[in-house]
Amino acid sequence: MILSALLTSVGINFALCLLFFILYSVLRNRPSYADFYIPRLVAEGKFQEDDEFSVVKLLSSFKWVKRACQPSEEELLANSGLDAVVFMRIFTFGLKVFRFAGIVGICILLPFNYMGNQLNIDFTDLPNKSLESFSISNVDDGSNRLWIHFAAVYIFTAVVCYLLYYEYDYIASKRIAYFYSSKPRPGQFTVLVRSIPATSGRSFSESVESFFSEYYPSTYLSHSVVRRTSKLRGLVNEADKVYKRLVHVKSKKHPQQRFKRAGFMGLFGRKLTLLDHYEKKLEDVEGNVRTERSSIAGKEVPAAFVSFKSRFSAAIVSHVQQGVKPTEWITEQAPDPQDVYWPFFSASFIKRCARSYSFGSVGGLVTFSERHIKLKIVSQVITGYFPSLILEMFLSLVPPVMIVLSSIQGYIALSQIEKSACIKVLWFTIWNIFFANVLSGSALYRVDVFLEPKRIPELLAVAVPGQASFFIAYVVTSGWTKTFSSELFRLKRLFWSFLKGTLCWKSDEELEVPSNPYHSEIPRILFFSLLGMTYFFLAPLILPFLLVYYCLGYVIYRNQLLNVYAPKFETGGKFWPVVHDATNFSLILMHVIAIGIFGLKKVPLASSLTIPLPILTLIFNSYCRRRFRPSFKGYPAECLINKDRFDQSDPTISSFYDELATVYRDPAMKSVRYSEARESSSSPLLYGADK
Amino acid sequence: MILSALLTSVGINFALCLLFFILYSVLRNRPSYADFYIPRLVAEGKFQEDDEFSVVKLLSSFKWVKRACQPSEEELLANSGLDAVVFMRIFTFGLKVFRFAGIVGICILLPFNYMGNQLNIDFTDLPNKSLESFSISNVDDGSNRLWIHFAAVYIFTAVVCYLLYYEYDYIASKRIAYFYSSKPRPGQFTVLVRSIPATSGRSFSESVESFFSEYYPSTYLSHSVVRRTSKLRGLVNEADKVYKRLVHVKSKKHPQQRFKRAGFMGLFGRKLTLLDHYEKKLEDVEGNVRTERSSIAGKEVPAAFVSFKSRFSAAIVSHVQQGVKPTEWITEQAPDPQDVYWPFFSASFIKRCARSYSFGSVGGLVTFSERHIKLKIVSQVITGYFPSLILEMFLSLVPPVMIVLSSIQGYIALSQIEKSACIKVLWFTIWNIFFANVLSGSALYRVDVFLEPKRIPELLAVAVPGQASFFIAYVVTSGWTKTFSSELFRLKRLFWSFLKGTLCWKSDEELEVPSNPYHSEIPRILFFSLLGMTYFFLAPLILPFLLVYYCLGYVIYRNQLLNVYAPKFETGGKFWPVVHDATNFSLILMHVIAIGIFGLKKVPLASSLTIPLPILTLIFNSYCRRRFRPSFKGYPAECLINKDRFDQSDPTISSFYDELATVYRDPAMKSVRYSEARESSSSPLLYGADK
Fold first, then answer.
1. Interface contact flag, B322 A630, Cβ < 8 Å
2. Hey, are the CB atoms on A637 and B325 less than 8 Å from each other?
3. Where is the CSC1/OSCA1-like N-terminal transmembrane domain (chains A, B) (predicted)?
4. DSSP character for B273?
């Protein structure tokens, strides 16, 4: 790609970003769009409708940028939880890393690359200059200037490792501090017990009761056995649907729409009022729900949530093997009630086993590459913009698929599913965007090359620099424009809701506050960081674009976390280890490429001297794993005991204990009172907990 | 090897065994040999001296065989602990397996092998017939008879897996039962805490005291901080040596030997009584010991043994992360006091780290093969006997080397060192005897063949059957004769002590009761089981010899456990998982060879149908690992709590608590009162614990 093509692409994307920015700023305060752009504020009742229009207001509507940057980390923590803080730390970490990389890359490496003569390019025509002249490919073979690149690789690695250590340490301490400051949460006091042994003449509930009250008489509080509710859940969903239709029909203005015929496909037979029809159907379904609910007592699953009076006792039970047989009384710390993935328990054991074995590694199956879309009309616009757009559309399908895979893999909590999907999406992205693009371009894309590990650096060194221009364009399209269009402007959702509103009846849906889709966003951000790290010394021209991406991302995601997303669960920063490992992987990938490049460029000494670097990085990673990872698995005895003691003096703890007894109940078991709701159709659904 | 050579070898070895058996039976009751053959009984005072000689007594001296077989497993358990029972279970397990294999192999497979015509051997001259005619090599290529071998492999695998499961289950339940029946042991109540954080102005002892009395006020009992005692230990050893010399000089009858000159090399200078010389030296050393001991208080190591009032609290502390930093307050269940490997703590931290990284895999460095001793005079005796004798002598050096390697690897308990050495010796034996012999014979002995995993079965199938005769001879020499000579007759030790007695002064050493060297014996037994399993369908002729070995071993080791060895530590059967894994490895090795053999013999269908077998075995192994392994790591909460409750009603528990406070003290710190001992030189050394 030549420089002018890149500039065209940047120009188009910049214009698009500006467009989305202005549209968003103007629309966000319009009441009709409030549900899209500030659903969280609306749900929390913090949004005042004000339909007036004035120029002053229009100008002040850009102030959201300032408001997004203003809150301190503590305010964000209080508002959105530790996961949101950790999520934003990925951006600040990226900014720190690429600020340093940018200074080194643009001020030192880029001039040296440009001064090289390897590629013999004409110097007079700058706009038509290939981007390659800014990359390491332009440095002469065997030139001593490559030692500057060598030093840059070493220094950069040291800086990134220092920052990684500092960040891991900071987040680990934040995690403890957050634990100390948080209110008692049911998950902390509760253990999920599985594989409860079957005793003849005794229900699982009785077994659990007798086991824990015998061995933990002073700390055992209560338990609730899990029941198989897949059928009930289906019925409740059906009831919900019928109820929604009923409400919809009631709200219709034209009375003729309220009728349908009773016979075949509603075309023949006697007329019925739709109202009567749905009311009757709802009654039927409600009857079924009641029948199913009363019979559910017998459908016990050998699993139970067992609650204790203190966090430490729950931790003890989850850490120490309970029964004599290691395959019975399997314990683990329970997720919080809203985090439990209930369908897990309804699946049969063998199904679950089969699942956990079969979905070890998906990904690497689908590959997409630039090659496939080599159109005849190779205009500058298309080379700059089109490939990455198609790639982007295809990739937007990946996160939902991975969530499905992870959810059938046997996790019991939504947060675990999301973390697992996050890792899957990350490797899928790295494999299918980075490696597939890089290796397909070099016509050496064969899996069997990985059977000869010695050739990998050479292969990557040949292939990776050639894709620099593609990835610069990718940062601009996927990084800049997609963040603006899809994240800030929520284009897809807006389009979808518009389609729904015009084509079919618009239902009076409740306002739905989404949660941050960590599993799709974290891999995206990490992939940009991987690009930045690998191309840092190869083609430093990518760095300014990345820095812009990180700045934009920081502002936009902060805004979204404050205004759009409400936390669905709280893992206490468990996503950070994923970020740490991925960054280490990026570093090692950079080292491998550096080894290959220095070899190709005929500086074998530099190549050999780079070999210790990946080894040192691996040692650093294993040290960090030992030093920090246990802090992210559970909480230490010291903290648990201190926090427990603090709670003992809290007067509200007894009411919390009462709550614990009922809080782990399958949501399908909670009764819904449609009948009351039916009286006044405008009132929202009433979900009453039957305590 | 031809049949007559084998018979010669068997004859020689049988005669040797008989010789050792008779010698042992006659000598064992002679008072002068009692220290060698029944040291345990002597130490326990159960041996009555009776120097009379009569024919009746001579005849009755063979009764030890009966006496060795008589005690039930419960009596053995009470006498020698669970480890001894588990050790004997290896023999009973082997007997069960090879009884079945022997019946199938000799009655079914052997006739079919013999009826084959592949090797075209003359049928009339049986004594000069090659042993190959009894092996699978003699079966015709593509013959349907190979399906009998195929069925045998499947059935044998099923039987072995069933027996393995049954045995694992049995030993796991024995382990729990033994735990319930055992007296309180200090290791159960104690946790070893390492990496105690340094606080300024506070000793480690104070840190430990304040930490555990704050967080475990109701269960914390006492602690003892470990001190760096390498210098003190050296001094105490020196004092011991000087004291022994002193005692020896005093016991001398000739007064002229009691003098030596003070000057150069004892040749010049004034005469000194040796007695005065040693007494003065002893006083000096004792002074040094006292000085060192008083200064040792400052040499604290950041490690401590912390005792609790109940087993369950100790288990909790060892399972749950204690401090906020995962690298501080590292806890693990403490070994029993006599099991602690004290030198570990004196090594510096960095040294320990370096060690634990560097000794991951030793072994496979030294290889010994039959080839190296191809002498000119190839007599039948030499082919049958000599190679395995030399191999045996070389291999006797391996276990001590492995113990040294394991002890510098960073284990804190002698039992852990022995278990680790056991695994090392096992792999060393399998690699250096089995693979080196097999692959060197086939001239395909290159490590790079393992880079092509697909060729391994073929390679083994070519090489393994050819070594059948060597391994049959090996079973006879190493299995039969070595068990008799070295284990029962204790030839090496007898020879050594004889040498000592004639060449230099014989010291009045105390009677030393040895412990069973699990690390050298278990790998030997398991290696024979590996031979039996791999050759079961290749050359069933090995099986009768193996069965004889297992029978002999059963009687002899039982005798040794009852009369010779005293348990040095008690792991509660932790050696069994090693046996289980090794047996599974043997099975898989057999399957791999079977896959290769069926391919070579041109029955590709049988070869393909064997492929699921190793996979099924691996699944079985991973199931057993999940099902049983946790039981061998610690004890479940249920048992710990029950046993603790039982102890609460025991009146002796308070005295046990008192004992706990002092029991984890470095043995070098316990004072030795030489002065008292000096008064009456004939009295044994008095080691008084300074409680």
1. no
2. no
3. 5-167
4. E
Position A335 scores a pLDDT of 92
pTM of the entire structure? Answer: 0.81
Which candidate in B213, B306, B325 is best for mutational testing of the A interface (most A CBs within 10 A)?
Answer: B325
For residue A299, give the DSSP letter: -
Test B322 with A637 for CB contact under 8 angstroms: yes
State whether A637 and B319 contact (CB < 8 Å): no
Strand bridging mode B300-308 / B220-227 = antiparallel
Q: Which residues from chain A sit within 8 angstroms of residue B628, using beta carbons?
A: 326
Q: How many residues does chain A have?
A: 691
CA distance A597 to chain B (A): 28
Residue B446 to residue B143: CA distance in whole angstroms: 32
pLDDT band at A372 (very low <50, low <70, confident <90, very high): very low
> What are the C-alpha distances in Å from A16 to residues A475, A482, A491?
14, 10, 12
DSSP tag of A28: T
* Residue numbers of chain B with a pLDDT score lower than 70: 1, 48-54, 119-129, 251-272, 346-389, 391-392, 440-452, 503-511, 671-691
Dihedral (CA of B127, B128, B130, B134) sign: negative
A215–B316: do the CB atoms touch at under 8 Å? no
Nearest to A638 among B215, B316, B327 (CB): B215
The widest CA-to-CA distance across chain B, in whole angstroms, is 93
- Residues of chain A with Cβ-Cβ distance to B637 below 8 Å are 215, 317, 320-322
Write the secondary structure of B137-189 as one string of H (helix), E (strand) and C (coil): HHCCCCCCCHHHHHHHHHHHHHHHHHHHHHHHHHHHHHHHHHHHHCCCCHHHH
Instruction: Give the gap in angstroms from C-alpha B455 to the nearest C-alpha of chain A.
Output: 16
State the pLDDT at residue A375: 39
From residue A309, give the alpha-carbon distance in Å to each of A187, A209, A571: 12, 15, 22
Q: What is the pLDDT of residue A682?
A: 40
Under the banding of pLDDT at 50, 70 and 90, the label for residue A28 is: confident
Size of interface A-B (CB pairs under 8 A): 77
Q: Which residues of A touch B324 (CB under 8 A)?
A: 176, 631, 636, 638-639
Higher pLDDT, A118 or A415: A415
pLDDT of residue A491 exceeding 90, the answer is no
Min CA distance, A38 vs chain B (Å)?
A: 39
List, for residues A510-569, the tens digit of each pLDDT value.
667 888 889 989 999 999 999 999 999 999 989 999 999 999 999 999 998 988 898 888
- For residue B124, the model assigns a pLDDT of 59
Residue of chain A nearest B315, judged by CA positions = A320
- Interfacial residues of A (vs B; Cβ cutoff 8 Å): 176, 215, 315-317, 319-327, 626-631, 634, 636-641
Task: Point out the residue among A176, A316, A324 whose CB comes nearest to the CB of B320.
Answer: A316
Short-list A540, A537, A541, CA closest to A594: A537
Burial of A512 (0-12, 13-18, 19+ CB in 10 A): exposed
Token pair of B157 as six digits: 């695998």
Summarize pLDDT for A426-441 with one digit per residue, the tens: 998 888 888 877 776 5
Q: Mean pLDDT across the stretch A647-666? A: 86
Burial of A648 per CB tally in 10 Å (0-12, 13-18, 19+): exposed
- Helix axes A542-563 and A73-104, enclosed angle (nearest 10): 170
Contacts of A164 (CB under 8 A, 6+ apart): A580, A583, A584, A620, A624
User: Which of A320, A321, A631 minimises the CB distance to B316?
Assistant: A320
> Min CA distance, B195 vs chain A (Å)?
13
ipTM of the complex model: 0.78
Q: In this model, does residue A269 exceed pLDDT 80?
A: no
Please count the residues of chain B.
Answer: 691
**Please, what sign has the CA dihedral across residues A397, A401, A402, A407?**
positive
